[in-house]
Amino acid sequence: MQIPNAAIRSQTHASSSRSFHRPRRHTISDKFTFYRTIPSLQEYVLIHQDRPHVVHHRKQDSGWLLTDVTSIDASLVLDSCDVEIPLRQIYRQVDWLFAD
């Protein structure tokens, strides 16, 4: 797999991807380990689909900084492209179904 000159990589994280009953596939950790080998990659974003939760990894000189964005009223800041995205915009077409 080649991703030439990628600065940002994002993916959606589904609850079903955490299942313990299916054969082993590439985990999110495996993928992030691979993505970190891409020299141009500056940010990695994981978007949860079942609740307002974005995990943002930002490359720094000392390593990767992880930030959890969990408030629907917060914003995701992508420094590598100078963009700020409100979580309300990311989740604008999601019907929240919270089960008790």
Shape: globular
Residue stretches low in confidence (pLDDT < 50, at least 5 long) are 17-22
Portion in strands: 25-35%
Distance between the termini: 41 Å
- Strand adjacency order, main sheet: 1-2-3-4
**Overall average pLDDT:** 80
What summary fits the major beta sheet?
Answer: 4 strands, mixed
Spatial extent as radius of gyration: 15 Å
Helicity range of the residues?
A: 10-25%
Oligomer category? single chain
The count of strands amounts to 6
Which sequence of SSEs, written as H and E, runs from N to C? Answer: EHEEEEEH
- How many DSSP helices? 2
Secondary-structure content class: mainly beta
Write a structural description:
The protein is mainly beta. The chain has 2 helices and 6 strands, in the order βαβββββα. The strands form 2 sheets. A 4-stranded mixed β-sheet has the order 1-2-3-4, with helices on one face. Strands 5-6 form a two-stranded antiparallel ribbon. A hairpin with a 2-residue loop joins strand 3 and strand 4 (63-69). Mean pLDDT is 80; it is low at 17-22.
